[in-house]
Design brief:
By secondary structure, the protein is mostly helical. It contains 10 helices and 3 strands; from the N terminus they run ααβαααααββααα. The protein is globular, with a radius of gyration of 22 Å.
Length: 244
């Protein structure tokens, strides 16, 4: 007699699937923790945003396009750049735990009144998004971003967070990090960036494909001037000395 091909799977097999199913989230959490811990000591060879931009270019048939990225340790970057990035993006960087709840509430209130305001993402959130995640605006993505932000703040010192941000932030179309930006825009190393150039790089961070640090328009010029004033308010280059 032929075996019944429509037989119900054995209970033991179903139990094994369920056994692994509930373990899968724990496995993903463990992998993410090991991933973030490793990058505390290992300089990332690329970010997810870099990979996505390269794949986008290839998908459009542009095989000559290449992401510009050249890692530099924080000590090899002019201190004016990371300080300018803090002054522009996240003045409470040294004291928050990854989320600036006052800034979030202020942004929410302004958005409710219909005012056009900048987002309230912290530098830690930007690192989580740029380094590990994909583009998009889903609740799942925001949840994963929040998890990576917690891991980064827990496992990395503040100086490492700022160092990684200065290296993976996009300063122009396909131009990532301080060294690539300094070489692409001014033909110099990141260690030789001037305070004015650093402020202009920080000024284009909201929309690096729309604004130019090398050829700044009125908006970038105004914002760069504001950033330079704000740098002095947070302590200038000495700000870095207070980070752990």
């Amino acid at each position: 007699m032929n075996a019944n091909v429509n037989a119900v799977p054995a209970p033991g097999r179903s139990r094994r699937w369920l056994h692994w199913l509930w373990k899968l989230p724990l496995l993903l959490l463990l992998i993410s923790m090991l991933q973030v811990l490793a990058l505390r000591f290992i300089d990332p060879p690329f970010s997810m945003f870099m990979a996505a931009r390269q794949l986008q270019a290839w998908g459009q048939g542009d095989f000559r396009f290449g992401v510009a990225y050249d890692w530099r340790d924080l000590e090899e970057i002019a201190p004016s750049l990371p300080v300018s990035m803090v002054a522009a993006e996240d003045q409470n960087f040294a004291v928050h735990g990854g989320f600036d709840f006052k800034a979030i509430e202020k942004a929410r209130a302004n958005n409710a009144r219909g005012r056009k305001v900048r987002g309230a993402s912290t530098i830690s959130q930007q690192v989580a998004k740029n380094l590990f995640l994909w583009s998009g605006r889903s609740w799942v993505r925001k949840g994963v971003e929040a998890w990576y932000t917690v891991l980064i703040e827990t496992l990395w010192p503040k100086r490492r967070i700022l160092e990684v941000y200065a290296n993976v932030a996009e300063f122009g179309d396909g131009v990532y990090g301080a060294q690539a930006a300094a070489r692409s825009f001014w033909g110099k190393d990141a260690a030789r960036l001037s305070p004015a150039e650093s402020a202009r790089l920080a000024a284009v961070l909201p929309k690096p494909k729309s604004y130019s640090a090398a050829r700044p328009g009125p908006y970038v010029q105004r914002r760069a001037a504001w950033i330079q004033r704000n740098v002095q308010r947070i302590g200038g280059n000495g700000y870095l000395e207070g980070l752990d």
